Amino acid sequence: MKVLSLTEPCATLIKEKKKLIETRSWKTTYRGELYIHAGATAIPKDWKEDTEFMSLVDNIPLNFGYIICKCTLVDCVYMTKDYVEEMKKNNYQEYICGKYEEGRYAWILEDIKPIKPIKAKGQLNIWQFYNEFEIMNLMENIEYGWVDTSNNKHTIVDESYSDNYILQSPKEIIKNKVGVCWDQVELERYYFKGNDWNIKTYFIVHYDNDKCPTHTYLTFEKNNKYYWFEHSWERFKGIHEYNFLKDLLIDVRDKFIKYELNNNYNKNNLCIYNYKKPKYHLSALEFYKHCESGINISLEDM
Fold first, then answer.
1. pLDDT tens across 26-79, in order?
2. How many CA atoms does the CB half-sphere of 70 hold within 13 Å?
3. In which band, very low, low, confident or very high, does the pLDDT at 209 lie, cut at 50, 70 and 90?
4. CB-based contacts of 139, cutoff 8 Å, min separation 6
5. What DSSP element (H or E) covers 107?
6. Distance between CA atoms of 277 and 109, rounded to whole angstroms?
7. Is 67 helix (H, G, I), strand (E, B) or coil?
8. Using CA atoms in the order 191, 194, 197, 199, what is the torsion angle rounded to 10 degrees?
9. Contact 253, 271 (CB under 8 A)
10. pLDDT in tens, 154-176
11. What is the Cα–Cα distance from 169 to 213, expressed in whole angstroms?
């Protein structure tokens, strides 16, 4: 869904149909369905002091940090001096709900309908929100493979991988349509960025002085449940639900031991790291080091 973030109480005023025009300093060519997100930032001081404006939301709950309604963006009107004066004279409530100045733009909204609130992070401009099922569908366009330093695509991880692999950016993965788990997690992170679901990424590795097999995966927390989002590991592709994060991490660890290590492993050489977003275009060795700089997870201490 396409979303526009607004500072409260403007989002709630739209939901309540007390504000039908959003004013912006920039124009848009987009027309169509648009969801309205109430940003998490505090109400500006000058707005709070505007009693006439704030009276429009008296006794109406505000919705900081949620997508709260949908509408249709039908037009984007350039504000002339006459347009501003006409609005002030004949549509005063709308006038005090926006910033009407010559040279700005009036986004005309119709068909406003409240929805069940969806917790989300705000972003600039019109942005795209995906739920977990939509993201899984988008990931279906990506096959398992990797891109080397010369931008050649490979569908088999062979001996050249360790010396020639390069971590792709999300846009590069979408373009190339291939990625190993390291790449795919970054694309998943990109798609999940609008969600406020405590997204985390993990790197599990077994140090065997040979290939050092690894797997990366993304988790999220939603409605007090924990989810393992898996696309690249074909055997376990899907969205797996758990009551506790520890249960999730143990399950992935045990599956990794059974199916990737064939139960042949040294407990002391098996590590799980919670790692942050890396820089793109890292080599294989650089990616290892980045993940190892994260938090080493001790399941016994959880």
1. 999 999 999 999 999 999 999 999 999 999 999 999 999 999 999 999 999 999
2. 9
3. confident
4. 184, 187, 188, 191, 231
5. strand 105-119
6. 37
7. strand
8. 50
9. no
10. 988 888 898 999 999 999 999 99
11. 22
The token pair that represents 50 in the structure block? 């505007």
Domains of the chain: 2-128 (2.30.130.30), 132-301 (3.10.620)
Question: Are 76 and 22 spatial neighbours (Cβ–Cβ below 8 Å)?
Answer: no
Predicted TM-score of the model (pTM)? 0.86
Residues counted in the chain: 302
> How far is 60 from 41, CA to CA, in rounded Å?
18
Whether 255 and 241 have beta carbons less than 8 Å apart is answered as: no
Burial of 28 (0-12, 13-18, 19+ CB in 10 A): middle
The 10s digit of each residue's pLDDT in 68-120 is 999 999 999 999 999 999 999 999 999 999 999 999 999 999 999 999 999 99
The pLDDT of residue 302 is 63
Query: What pLDDT score was predicted for residue 62?
Result: 95
Q: Are strands 2-6 and 32-38 parallel, antiparallel or unpaired?
A: parallel
Phi-psi region at 201: left, alpha or beta (left = phi > 0; alpha = psi -120 to 50):
beta
Residue written as token pair 């279906």: 140
